[in-house]
Amino acid sequence: MNKTLIKIIFWTIIAVVAFSVKYSDPVNRTTKDYIITAVLLSCAALYGVLKALLRQGKLDKYFRAVSDYLGVDEEKVMRDYKKNKYNNNIKWAEKGYAKYQFDLGLCYANGEGVAKDFIQAVVWYRKAAEQDHAGAQYCLGLCYYFGDGVIKDYELAVYWYQKAATQGVARAQYYLGRCFANGDGVTKDQEQADYWYSKAAKQGVVSVPE
User: Is 162 in contact with 168 (CB distance < 8 Å)?
Assistant: First the structure.
C-alpha cells in the first residue's frame, strides 16, 4: 500500500477517535458537530499527506521557492528552531522526564541548538537509560561501543544493547548479534548472534553503518 495513503488512513482514524471521544452521545449531535467532524477529517488527511511528502523531500523545492520569494532566511529559521528545541528539552529533562533527557542527549550528539558534545550526550543518555528508555539504552550502547564521549568498553556496550534489544529496538538487536558474532565484550556465540540477527531482520534491519 502506498505510504502516503497509509498516512491519510492513520490520521483519519485519529480524527474519528478524537470526534468519538468528544461527541460520544450520538443522540445529541448537531449539524455543527458533523461540520466539525468533516473539518477534522479534512485536516487530518491533509496533514497526513503533507507529513508524508515532507519526509520524502518532495516539497523541499516549493518551500525554498516560497522562502526565496518572501526573503526568509532558512538557515536562521532552522537555527532558531533547533535552539528552541534544545531549550525545551533541557527544561523538561532537568525535571526528570526520560523522553526529554533522551532528546537532549540527541541534541548534544548532533549539535542541534548547542555545540556538539558527546560527553554531555552520554550524561543525558544515561539518565534516560536508567529510567528504562529503550532509545537511550541503545544510544548509550553505541557510545560505549565506538568510544564516543566515554572510554570504549565493549562489555558496557553489550550491557546496554541487551537492555534495548529486549525492548525490541531493532538496531540494538543487530549490534548485539554482531557482538556475539565477533566476541566483542562477550564470549563468542554464533547461535546467540544468529538469534539476535534474526530478531533484527524481522524488523527490517539486516545491516547497520560501521
Answer: no
For residue 56, what are the contacts with CB-CB under 8 A and spacing of at least 6? 3
All three cell numbers of 169, joined, read 529496538
Q: Tell me which residue of 151, 106, 158, 109 sits closest to 128, measured CA to CA.
A: 106
- Eight-class DSSP state of 113: S
Residues 37 and 141 in one domain: no
Task: Please indicate, yes or no, whether the overall pTM of this predicted structure exceeds 0.90.
Answer: no
What does pLDDT average to in each consecutive run of 10 residues of the chain (210 residues)?
58 58 52 63 60 54 59 69 87 95 95 94 97 97 97 97 97 96 96 96 82
Tell me how many degrees the CA angle 198-200-206 measures, rounded to the nearest 5: 90
The H helix count followed by the E strand count for the chain is 10, 0
The C-alpha R_g of the chain, in whole angstroms, comes to 22
Residue 162, in any domain of the structure: yes
- In sequence order, the 6+-apart residues with CB closer than 8 A to the CB of 136 are 98, 101, 102, 105, 124, 125, 126, 127, 128, 129
Alpha-carbon torsion, ordered 131, 133, 136, 137, to 10 deg: 80
Indicate whether 95 and 58 sit together in one domain.
no
- Which of 84, 90, 112 shows the shortest CA–CA distance to 102? 90
My answer on whether 100 and 192 are in the same domain is: yes
Containing domain of residue 158, as a range?
A: 74-201
The DSSP output letter for 111 is: T
Q: What is the residue whose three cell numbers read 533547533? A: 82
Q: What is the per-residue pLDDT for 1?
A: 47
